[in-house]
Fold each of these.
Amino acid sequence: MRRGLFLWTFIIFFFTPTSGNSQINESQTGTWYMYFFNTTFKESSWGFQGDIQYRNLNLIGDLEQLLFRGGISYQPKQTQIKLTIGYGNITNGTSTSINSINLENRIYQELMFPIKFGNRIQTNHRFRSEQRFIEGQDLRTRYRYNLFINIPLNKTSFESKTLYLSIYDELFINGELNTGDDEKVNFFDRNRLYTALGYMINDQIKLQLGFMSQRTSNWNRTQLQLSFHHNIQHCTKKMNNIKPNSSQSIPTASIRYK
């Protein structure tokens, strides 16, 4: 309980937004700090997943975006397909004022499924639809496709103490192009290409440190990314296997490769 309280206190403090100069400087490398989590509700097909991301135009302090996102997931039995519907709250730094931010509320739907090639190469395919309610704009829609590739380097499969290569490429396209007040956006929104080294500490925790190149119609930027991946599982089943007075500790969280 105290560990959980400390973790959330740290997250709230660390991810509190601060205003900064958010003008786009293509020569400056930004930094993204990210926490991903997911869980299932006991033995059912239902679960919850989400992420918190603190994105900076520099190392820290010059806010690009603060994102809180979470959704209810459903994985039909005997399938690898996962469906999610969720909500996101986003604070964006603006490029028009030094001390200005705008807010976005977002509803999204997501389909994800894995495909494995041989014994080592594992891929995930994610399709996401977004309805975006951005301050000062009309309703906007956006569609995203992400191809994830993960390859273990020092082992033949993903297990404790696995060092692995992580690559993804994500394409964004806009649906509704009119944003209001005779303003329009391009059909092509952006593309993100990411490469990272990851380390699965054990079956509970996974860390990644990577580099992303992001391209829009107007600018190209690079970002360093540090991410923490966390799968919170119920422990009812594990508790039933522990004998009374046993000194065995009860795992409270684990990581599921995806």
Amino acid sequence: MKVFISWSGDTSRRVAELLRDWIPDVIQTIEPFLTVRDMEKGTRWFSEISEELEGSDHGIICVTPDNKEAPWIHFEAGALAKKVGKSKVCPLLINLEPHDLKGPLVQLQVTRDTREEFLLLFRSLNREIDKPLADERLKTYFDRTWDPFEKELEEIKGSVPASEETIRTEDDKLNEILEYVRREIRFAKPDIQFTGVTMGGSSDVNVIDHNYKQRQAGVKKELMEYMESTNAFVRWMIKENTVYFDSELSRVSEKHIIALYKIVHRNGFTQGEFDGSS
């Protein structure tokens, strides 16, 4: 499996090179690619990058405070998302938080520069290879190589100023909650099969869900039990595979919002919003 590592600027390049050397030490069958060391001199760089983007199965975008708005980062992120899908493109945040991102990058599932989230990233990559490692073996390789990687990463991070504190809006806070929930449920796989066929320029998607009634009953039961036990009542309804919450949900504490969203995703649903005031 080929992983394209995108970078822009000196700090981002150093992190990308470090990742390029580390990833095969954990999962040997992964082939990382980054332009600075892997393109031969004299090659037509734009054509070569386009070919590598086209041939990649996964993407990691090294994002730092000084390149988070760089056009090149957004170009490669967009090209990767178009090729492999948004779920397989991961912005790696160096001295940044998710609410620091703007533009297309906010739509992607980020990885913070912590041990726990790097392990989640490797587990995500491992699931995509033809013969994935057993999780115990993956963690053994990860633990064995983490300390030297972390030492070099911290040296790089020490040369990067942390992002300036920004004023966070309510939308920023809710987006961060959603990102937290997505990371928590990264391994959830509801028993749903999707089949699609393109006809007349539009996509007709048929959903074959063998356990829908069971999941629907489960999410109803868990939501009602949680609200009764915490007095965190909010109106909600289920339509197809989405649980819609009253737009007044934002008045509930972040702790309760996180818990409610976890229940929704754990049962294989997505969350939405409706205006209950009308």
